[in-house]
Design brief:
- With 162 residues, the protein is α+β, with helices and mostly antiparallel strands.
- The chain is built from six helices and five strands, in the order H-E-H-H-H-E-E-E-H-E-H.
- It has one domain: Gcn5-related N-acetyltransferase (GNAT) (Aminopeptidase).
- Helix 5 links the parallel strand 4 and strand 5.
- The longest helix has 15 residues.
- It starts with a helix and ends in a 15-residue tail after the last helix.
């Protein structure tokens, strides 16, 4: 899609590059603006600002923490982070992951970028043999996602066998 024809101020999603977060992204993530005005968004901004330190914590190496950024024109416009799940008896599970955060810069929200990022991250997890992914969704977002038919109302629960 040509953005000039559509009158869209944002580039197409095809112009966005997804890549692993790098230590050099720390400053951009620290100033990342997912929006303000709610405690939820304030918490998201705080989480995003600390993602590189979180990922690189040597004490948490077993969790295989990952940070994926969406870059457009050299700027980070979205980010996601995930890690392995820890079971209380079985320990860290390589085939189960927790999608800790997905954030889109305020000026790029409602463009499909979050969906693109989540689908790409989950596809990569599947390629790596991950069997389940869990994440928390803000109640308003859940209603929107469900009304769009993107999530089933019932989910199969996957548990570790011990």
């Amino acid at each position: 899609m040509d953005t000039e024809q559509a009158g869209d101020a944002h580039p197409t999603l095809l112009d966005v590059i997804l890549r692993d977060g790098a230590p050099s992204d720390d400053a951009a993530l620290a100033s990342f603006d997912p929006g303000t005005g709610t405690s939820w968004l304030d918490e998201v901004a705080e989480i995003v600002g600390g993602l590189i330190v979180w990922r690189d914590d040597p004490a948490e190496h077993a969790f295989d923490r990952q940070v994926v950024v969406a870059e457009d024109g050299g700027q980070i416009v979205a980010v996601a982070a995930h890690e392995r799940v820890e079971h209380e008896r079985a320990g860290v599970l390589a085939v189960h992951r927790y999608l800790m955060v997905v954030a889109v810069r305020q000026d790029r929200q409602r463009t499909g970028l979050a969906r693109l990022l989540v689908e790409a991250v989950i596809a990569e997890m599947q390629f790596d043999g991950v069997q389940s992914v869990s994440w928390l969704i803000h109640p308003r977002t859940l209603r929107r996602v469900r009304s769009a038919g993107a999530l089933p109302r019932r989910r199969r629960v996957v548990t570790a066998r011990g």
